[in-house]
Design brief:
Elements: H1 2-14, E1 17-20, H2 23-29, E2 37-40, H3 55-67, H4 71-83, E3 94-97, H5 102-113, E4 121-124, H6 143-148, E5 154-155, H7 158-173, H8 176-182, H9 193-201, H10 213-223, H11 229-239, H12 247-259
Parallel strand pairs: 1-2, 1-3, 3-4
Antiparallel strand pairs: 4-5
Helix pairs in contact: 3-4, 5-7, 5-9, 10-12
Length: 269
C-alpha cells in the first residue's frame, strides 16, 4: 500500500501543470490531447493598483468597483486558482501559455516571480502565427493549431526567473525612468517583455497634452465621429494590439477622457 501511495505521489509530481492565460485559451486547450493539469490565470495586473504584499486584498475592491466583479467569484475564480502557485512540487514541470501583449506580459512576470524555486519551467509565447496575419491571441486558434505550439516551448533558466522578478518589482514601483533604463538590457528568452514594457511607458501622461498614448488614440478615434463603443474597440485593437486590452479596460480610459471633459459618456452608444 505504501509503495502504491509513493507511486501516486511520484506520478502527481511529474504531471505537467499548464498555466493558461485565460478561459479563451482553456476552452481550446481542453479540446486538444495535450496531457497534464491546468491552472487558469484570470487577473489583469496591467490595470489598476499592484503591490508587493497583500496583492489580492488590494486588487479585490478595485476589480469589483471598476470591472463589476463579484467578491465571492473573485475569491473562487482568481485568488483560489492563483493560490495553487504557492503549493507546487519544486520538480513539477510547468508550462506557461502566454501572449506577446502588455496584459499577458505583466501577468507573466508576476507569475514567474513566484516560481524562482521551480526547476522545470517552460514557456510558450508566440508573437505571431502562420496564416493568421492579425494574430491576437491563443484563444483564437483551433485545437490543432494550439497543439502545434508544443514544439515551440522553451525552458526558462534561473536568470530568466530573476529578470522577471526584477521587472515585476520595477513595475510595482511604477518608476518609468527605471523601467526605461532596464530596457537597454538583454531580455534573452523573455524578449517579448521588452516591447510590452516599451508600450507600458506610453501609458504615462505626456507633459504636453497631459494625456497618455491610449487616451490620445481613443480621442483621435472619437474626433472622427465614431461614438459606437464596439466600433471604438475594433479600431483601437487594429492599431494597438501590443496593449492586449479588453473592452472593459478601454471603457476605463473612455471614462477618464469623459471626466477630463473631452466628451460626455452619454454620447457613446
Amino acid at each position: 500500500m505504501q509503495v502504491f501511495k509513493d507511486l501516486q505521489g511520484l506520478q502527481s509530481a511529474m504531471n505537467t501543470l499548464h498555466i493558461l492565460n485565460g478561459d479563451a485559451t482553456l476552452n481550446v486547450f481542453l479540446k486538444t490531447e495535450i496531457a497534464g493539469e491546468t491552472l487558469v490565470w484570470r487577473e489583469l495586473l496591467s490595470e489598476g493598483p499592484v503591490t508587493k504584499t497583500d496583492l489580492w486584498a488590494t486588487r479585490l475592491p478595485w476589480v469589483c468597483e471598476n470591472f463589476g466583479a463579484n467578491a465571492l467569484d473573485y475569491q473562487q475564480m482568481v485568488v483560489a486558482e492563483a493560490d495553487k502557485l504557492q503549493h507546487l512540487n519544486a520538480d513539477q514541470p510547468l508550462l506557461l501559455w502566454f501572449e506577446f501583449d502588455l496584459v499577458c506580459q505583466i501577468n507573466l512576470i508576476y507569475i514567474l516571480s513566484l516560481l524562482k524555486k521551480q526547476r522545470n519551467v517552460f514557456l510558450i509565447c508566440p508573437a505571431s502565427f502562420k496564416d493568421l496575419p492579425n494574430f491576437r491571441g491563443l484563444g483564437e486558434l483551433n485545437p490543432t493549431q494550439l497543439a502545434s505550439l508544443m514544439g515551440t516551448k522553451v525552458r526558462l533558466q534561473e536568470s530568466d526567473l530573476q529578470l522577471a522578478s526584477k521587472m515585476w518589482d520595477l513595475y510595482v514601483e511604477n518608476n518609468p525612468d527605471q523601467i526605461a533604463y532596464r530596457l537597454n538590457s538583454d531580455f534573452g528568452t523573455l524578449a517579448l517583455l521588452k516591447p510590452a514594457l516599451t508600450a507600458h511607458l506610453l501609458r504615462f501622461p505626456s507633459p504636453v497634452s497631459n494625456l497618455n498614448h491610449i487616451e490620445e488614440v481613443l480621442l483621435k478615434i472619437i474626433k472622427t465621429g465614431v461614438y459606437e463603443q464596439q466600433k471604438i474597440y475594433s479600431l483601437f485593437w487594429e492599431t494597438e494590439p501590443i496593449f492586449g486590452m479588453t473592452d472593459l479596460q478601454i471603457d476605463l480610459y473612455l471614462k477618464q477622457l469623459a471626466a477630463k471633459g473631452y466628451f460626455r459618456l452619454s454620447d457613446l452608444n
